[in-house]
Amino acid sequence: MFVIRRSVRNANRLTTAGWGGSPVGEYETRFGSIDDFEKGGVLLVDDDPRNYVFSNVYEVASMSAPFEKVAVAKNQEYVLEAVRVEGISPWRTAVHDEFALVMSGEVIFEFVDLTDPPTELPRQGSVELASTPVGPPMGRVVARHGHMVLLAANSAYRYEADAPAALLVQTMASSDTKYRWPEICQTR
Question: Taking a C-beta distance cutoff of 8 angstroms, is the pair 136, 115 a contact?
Answer without folding.
Answer: yes
